Amino acid sequence: MSTEDQGIADVVRQLLPRCSSITSLVVEDILREIPEFAHDARLMDLLEAAATENVSAAMHAIALGTRLDTIDAPQAGVEHARILARREVPITVLLRAYRLGQTRFVEGVLEEARQQGFELGEGMVELVRAVALYIDRISDQVAHAYDQERELWVGSKAALRQQWVGQLLLDGPQADVSQAERALRYRLDGWHMAVEAWIDDSQDQSSVVGYFDRAAALIRRAGHVRLDHLSVPTDTFQVRMWFPVSESWTIDTQALAEALREAGNPVRLALGDKRQGVAGFRTSAASARRVKSLAMSAHGPVPRVLSHAEVAAVALLVDDPVELQFFVSSTLGALASPDPRCEDLRETLLVYLEANRSYHMAASRLHVHRNTVHYRVQQAMEFVDSELGSDTFALQMALTICRWISL
C-alpha cells in the first residue's frame, strides 16, 4: 500500500466515530433532491438503512485498506431497489440516488476531516477514486436486483390483467366492473377500439416487447388517443390491446401502416370496430380477432394495418368455413378454382364491379389495357355461367371472399 493510501486509511479510521453524521448528510441530500422517497415512510426507512450500511461499509473498507470494488451491496440496498421496482419508480431515480449519495459522502468525509484538522492533500484523489469504484459496483448490483424484481412484477401484473380481461370477455355473468377497472387501470364505460397485434416469430424475442410498445405509441399518435391503453399479451409474439376512443373516432390505416414502415417496425395490426361499454369491450375484441384471422388466412398480399370497417362483410363469415366454401362454390362455379388463371379473372371481375362496371377505371387500377379488362370479364362470366344483371351482390361478395380467404 502506498504512503498516500496509508494516509487515507489513517484519516478515515479516525473518522469512523463520525460515521452516523456523514450518513445523515447523505440521507438529507437524497431526500431533498428526490421527493419520491421523502413522502413514503417505507422508502425512507429503507433509504436510511441502505445509506447507513453503505457508508459504514465504505468507511471501514477504506480504513482497513480493503478494495471497495469487491464489496457486495448491503441487503437493505437490494431490498430498496426491489421495492422501487414494485412501486414502478423508474430505475433512473434509483441510480440518481446513488450518484447523489456518492457526491455527498465524499463531501462529508472532507468536511469532517477538515473540522478534525486532518489534511488529505493528494489523498483526496484516491478517496474519490475508491468511492467511485464502490458506487459503480453497488449500482450494478442494485440495478440487477431492480431488473429482476421488475420482470417478476410485470409478469405478475400481466397475469392479473389476463385474468380480469378473460372474465370481461366471457359471455354470461360479468365481472365486477369497478374492481376490473381498478385492477386494469382502464375505464370500461366509454368507447373502445380493440387491436390484435402480432409479429413474425422469426424476430428476436428480446426486441418484441419494444416493437409492440412503439406500435401502440404510433396508434395513439395517429388516432389522437390521449388516455392510456390496455395491453395484454396473448403469446410471445402476439398482443391484444384496447384504446379508449370517442364515438366519432376514426383513424387512417394507410397512414398508420406507412408510419410503421418508416419506423422499421415489423408489427402487423388488425383493428376492430369501436364499441361502447363492457359489451363493446368484448365485441370490439371479437371483431379485431376476426380481422386477424382473415389477414392470417389470406393467400395474397395483405396490408400491414387492416381494419374491420374495410373487411367487415367477409370478416363476419370467417367463423363458419364450411358455409363460406359452399356459398363461394355455388356462386362462382368453376371460377372458384384456386389456379392462377382463375385468380386473375376473379380479381379483374371484382375490380370491374368495384369500379361501377367502368372498364376504363378498372384498367387504371389494374394497370392493364381497357381491352384486357373487357376480355377477362367476359372470360370470368363464362366460368360463372351467368349474366351480369342489376343485382351482383352475391357475386361481388363471393369474389371478395376469394380475395381474402384461400378456400
From TrEMBL:
Domain (PucR C-terminal helix-turn-helix) ranges: 345-400
CdaR GGDEF-like domain segment(s): 175-291
Domain RsbT co-antagonist protein RsbRD N-terminal per the UniProt entry, residue ranges: 21-161
Entry-linked Pfam families: GGDEF_2 (PF17853), HTH_30 (PF13556), RsbRD_N (PF14361)
Membership in a protein family: Belongs to the CdaR family.
Name this protein carries in UniProt: Unannotated protein
Annotated source species: freshwater metagenome
Source lineage: unclassified sequences, metagenomes, ecological metagenomes
